[in-house]
Amino acid sequence: MTTSIPFSTDAATPAVPRTMTAAVARRFGGPDVVEVTQVPTPEPRADEVLVRVRATTVSIADHRLRAADLPRGLGFLRIVALGAFRPRKPVLGMEAAGEIVRVGADVTDFAVGERVMVMRGSAMGCHAQYVRARAGGAVVPIPGAMSYEDAAAILFGGYTAVSFLDRVELQPGTRVLVNGASGAVGTAAVQLAAAAGAHVTAVTSARNADLVRSLGAERVVDYLSEDFAAGDDRWDVVVECVGNAPFTRVERVLAPGGALLLVIADGPSMLRERSQSRRSGLLVTHEGSVFGKAALERVAAHAAAGELRPVIDRTFDLDDIARAHRYVDTGRKRGAVVVRVP
Ligand SMILES: NC(=O)c1ccc[n+]([C@@H]2O[C@H](COP(=O)([O-])OP(=O)(O)OC[C@H]3O[C@@H](n4cnc5c(N)ncnc54)[C@H](OP(=O)(O)O)[C@@H]3O)[C@@H](O)[C@H]2O)c1
């Protein structure tokens, strides 16, 4: 039985049940720890909207939080970031696309029925039928007639790529190498760099060569047969999305004034990046520079301009989310693994 939440005062607004279906991980472990069950529906605060989630994704971040899989040297963050004995955020999911079903009393810039995309980031909670979002935070209208699934698919990679590429000035002719070009972040970074007029080299395996070329890469390096860091080519920007290209490997192929954007870095790399930057005159950083609504607005604008297209590998229903986790765990997904929330 479902009963409506009492804060539903306007007859025109859709009823919101007191409980909702969500994917819940109550312990760390493999995909089977994720259980689809009923939990209380969140209530929006005065400055928040409540979104009926239609689509979300299982990202590598969900894998990391579910499996307590942190990069080398960052284990000390586990208790703070993930939880001591069980996941601090049992409902995973960083991002969602859906429609607004409630607006808090102080919210003036959103209305019930509006189609929005939401990036909750480490607050998680999007693998569920409803999610709260602060109206002033990372929630923006979905551009045009984009489907919920397409909108969900561009969020994780697009948001990350926008944030990191903001650290550098991309111009026509800038030479950009994306390591891990076929993943969620890589597919977005290739597209955004190409849209800025950069010459993009994509590092991936041969099976993904056509995909990354279709996204704008001029050159493809198959990492199984060629080491991009061993040749004579030079790049102005290297976007590292794999975890095997620290500064010590990449320094020799960075052009003077170049940048290494460490989307993924281990503890030792993070500790050394300042001294490496000082010594080399290159930018070495594991931090992006634009977040929240501003970053999401840019993701939406790139999508509206046709510069950021969704790359969807597979789609699963929420009931089947453990299979989505299993697939993401392979490390071989291309772009996004979308979860429909019926
Ligand atoms: N700092 C941040 O804020 C932030 C935000 C988002 C993500 N991240 C991190 O960034 C990394 C990338 O995230 P993602 O979502 O893009 O991951 P993803 O979608 O899971 O990446 C999967 C892709 O990686 C490729 N890959 C695997 N090994 C490779 C190798 N040795 N060389 C080149 N490509 C390889 C695979 O292609 P093949 O099948 O061809 O091997 C696959 O297409 C993750 O480690 C994630 O934790 C950080």
CATH architecture tag of the largest domain: Alpha-Beta Complex
Q: Level of helix content?
A: 25-40%
What is the radius of gyration computed over CA atoms, rounded to a whole number of angstroms?
A: 20 Å
Largest sheet features: 7 strands, mixed
Terminus-to-terminus distance: 18 Å
Global morphology: globular
| CATH-defined fold name of the largest domain | Quinone Oxidoreductase, Chain A, domain 1
Q: Determine the CATH superfamily of the largest domain.
A: Medium-chain alcohol dehydrogenases, catalytic domain
Would you write up a description of this structure?
The structure is a single chain. Helix 3 (148-165) crosses helix 4 (184-195) and helix 3 packs across helix 8. The chain has helices spanning 60-67, 78-82, 148-165, 184-195, 209-214, 247-250, 267-280, 292-304, 321-328; strands spanning 19-25, 34-40, 48-58, 95-103, 115-119, 130-134, 139-141, 175-179, 199-204, 219-222, 235-240, 254-262, 283-285, 312-317, 336-340. Helix 5 links the parallel strand 9 (199-204) and strand 10. It has 9 helices and 15 strands. The protein is 26% helix and 27% strand. The protein is an alpha/beta fold and 342 residues long. Strands 3, 4, 5, 6, 7, 14 and 15 form a 7-stranded mixed β-sheet that branches. It has a 6-stranded parallel β-sheet with strand order 10-9-8-11-12-13. Strands 1-2 form a two-stranded antiparallel sheet. NADP nicotinamide-adenine-dinucleotide phosphate is lined by residues 59-60, 64, 157, 160, 179-180, 182-186, 203-205, 208, 223, 241-244, 263-264, 331-334.
